[in-house]
Amino acid sequence: MERQAADYRTLSSLKNALHALKCFTPEEPELGITQIADKLGLSKSTVHRVMTTLAEEGFVRRDEQTHRYRLGLSVLSLGGIIMSNLEICREGQHLLEEFVNRFDETVHLAVLEDYATVYVSKLECKHPVQIATHLGRKNPLHCTSSGKVILAYQDSTVIDEVIRRGLRPMTPNTITHPDTLRQLLSQIRKDGYAFSQSELREGVHSVAAPVRDYTRQVIGAVTAVGPAARFTPEKMKSLAKTLVSISKEISHRLGYYERVR
Amino acid sequence: MERQAADYRTLSSLKNALHALKCFTPEEPELGITQIADKLGLSKSTVHRVMTTLAEEGFVRRDEQTHRYRLGLSVLSLGGIIMSNLEICREGQHLLEEFVNRFDETVHLAVLEDYATVYVSKLECKHPVQIATHLGRKNPLHCTSSGKVILAYQDSTVIDEVIRRGLRPMTPNTITHPDTLRQLLSQIRKDGYAFSQSELREGVHSVAAPVRDYTRQVIGAVTAVGPAARFTPEKMKSLAKTLVSISKEISHRLGYYERVR
DNA sequence: CAATCTTGTTTCTCTATGCGGAACAACGCG
DNA sequence: CGCGTTGTTCCGCATAGAGAAACAAGATTG
């Protein structure tokens, strides 16, 4: 009856399926029909059909015992394709490795997408104390070092839009005031790197430096994350220095050339 | 009109979309509407709707210039979830790292899926001469070292089925005779590891050892791949020794305990 | 620089498709 | 051993989605 304004250009059944896929998270990697149906507000029969189809194509895997579902290997394959074709990943991988070998801290490559930073590559340190992050995770721009450093170099319309959407407080440290943010972004442009100190999650610090492509636009960032205890101000400064040089190298490989005048 | 026997339990439109996603490969990461429509034998309008929906949900990304499509970051996110939840990956990662550090050769974790080996994890060596492989890629069982070593420990009905499906020759070296294969599999069970010498692709050799889970079933393999020039018989033997010990360690972490009595 | 392919996008129309509700089956729990 | 769960199947009706074809917007051509 009251269907949502039937958009002639999209497929509602496909949307259902994609939403179903997005229900899976690292915390909840296994779901049953009813759970998914509830999350999406769809009938069990519909979800059942969707999942059967997804399973047939290997996008989802059904446990014969519990009749619950997990993501299937087909999505891994797609993920692999993306990885091998995102230039920023290809070019950055080895440099990240060197970084981890030298500092033994976790590093990421992040890119801007849809007013969020998305981690597209990750290299873990061997420390017993690790920060749980995962590929593809979207984080807000205003409370992460990668987000801020990317945002700092965006067009002011982007910055305005981020502010308009609201600077949601995630911890007591989150920057929630537009003016403070603008001021900080200007400082970041001067420094060439950004910090985040417990602004997204309590006790998690990070440092990030901007990556540019051949159009000179900042499209992503290299960022190191770790626990506050290890990430002292001095250490973060020293990490920043290396991250900046790595980010320049990656930018270079993406066709960016420093000011020629 | 002559629709395909409308299966009441699956969604044809969703299938179309999933097939569309599967059109993307590392070799062809960017596709236009018409290309996809041709590949799938669907009308342009249908594909257009599918792609628009996929794009809206971030599963695909549309280049504003060329109006062609690439995979989007949503699939990366799903891939990340799978990676962090496939026990075999989690447990294997560090061991693979050690292997790469020691031998500087590319290693994979592969699992059995749908009568094929699928690479679920990969660590590249730094050699300039590399073998192009990618995550999620399915390869036949009879002509890869990982495939053979997994197959060797499967129920004989699985082996029969593989043979029934045909031992497709990929190179002059591919084993195409059922008896030869059976004999080799029995040898592999004795050795505890398998080789492949240019059986899948000319000039590409590999070595693999089996990984078991707590049910004692062989569910995957650790495998090293490289160019024939570097992979001499002696070297492969030595790699095999290490791979076997790594595979045992992974199996152990998956709850497998060696024969008790 | 027009003529002509070849893209992608939109419109339209008709019917098979996919929706939800309800009946059914298969567990697991007390 | 029944009751509250699950997941699965059936069914009937409205509508979503398939393709043909018109349309628009670049490319490519000579």
Automatic annotation (TrEMBL), chains A, B:
Gene Ontology molecular function, alphabetical: DNA binding; DNA-binding transcription factor activity
Superkingdom to which the source organism belongs: Bacteria
SMART domains on file: HTH_ICLR
Domain HTH iclR-type stretches: 11-73
InterPro entries in the cross-refs: ArsR-like_HTH (IPR011991), GAF-like_dom_sf (IPR029016), HTH_MetabolicPath_Reg (IPR050707), Tscrpt_reg_IclR_C (IPR014757), Tscrpt_reg_IclR_N (IPR005471), WH-like_DNA-bd_sf (IPR036388), WH_DNA-bd_sf (IPR036390)
Annotated ranges, domain IclR-ED: 74-256
Short name of any one Pfam family annotated for the protein: IclR_C
Transmembrane parts of this sequence: none
GO biological process: negative regulation of DNA-templated transcription
Sorted UniProt keywords: DNA-binding, Transcription, Transcription regulation
Function: May be an activator protein for the gylABX operon.
Annotated protein name in UniProt: Glycerol operon regulatory protein
Upper lineage: Bacteria, Bacillati, Bacillota, Bacilli, Bacillales
